[in-house]
Design brief:
Number of domains: 1
Number of helices: 3
Order of helices and strands: EEEEHEHEHEE
Number of strands: 8
Largest sheet: 6 strands, mixed
CATH superfamily: Dinitrogenase iron-molybdenum cofactor biosynthesis domain
Helix content: 10-25%
Radius of gyration: 13 Å
Distance between the termini: 9 Å
CATH topology: Nucleotidyltransferase, domain 5
């Protein structure tokens, strides 16, 4: 599995639509095996989705994300875990340990629920599946 994490200044980037840096983490058997960084210069939705898919990401962890961009990523087979916040390495550890749903890793104002795109509709629910 390859996880893409939108980062800015050591933290989860607040808005994925304009994030310029991704940390890509390859995970095998629940453990990190490789880490790389990529610059994302694409600003239009289609090219941005193509870039994420082209990098081989199966999961995207990010802060806020527009609904159209989230829907396009979902349609391309990328699971989006939005509304994350905090130092990105702490968020990664929470993801690996199944604790990303904890309030400490959610953007302020999320009221304990994450927005989730589910095949054409939005809802709140568990923030991740492994």
């Amino acid at each position: 599995m390859r996880v893409a994490i939108a980062v800015f200044d050591g933290r989860i980037s607040p808005v994925f639509d304009v994030a310029r840096r991704l940390v890509l983490v390859d995970i095998e058997n629940g453990h990190e095996v490789r880490r790389t960084e990529q610059v994302v210069e694409e600003t239009d939705l289609g090219p941005r989705v193509s870039r994420v898919v082209g990098l081989g990401a199966n999961v995207l962890i990010c802060g806020a994300i527009s609904r159209p961009l989230e829907a396009m990523l979902f349609s391309a087979g990328v699971e989006v875990l939005p509304q994350a916040c905090g130092p990105w390495e702490n968020v990664l550890r929470a993801f690996l340990s199944g604790q990303l749903t904890e309030q400490a890793f959610m953007m302020p104002g999320c009221c304990g629920q994450r927005r989730r795109f589910r095949g054409g509709q939005y809802g709140a629910g568990p923030a991740f599946r492994m």
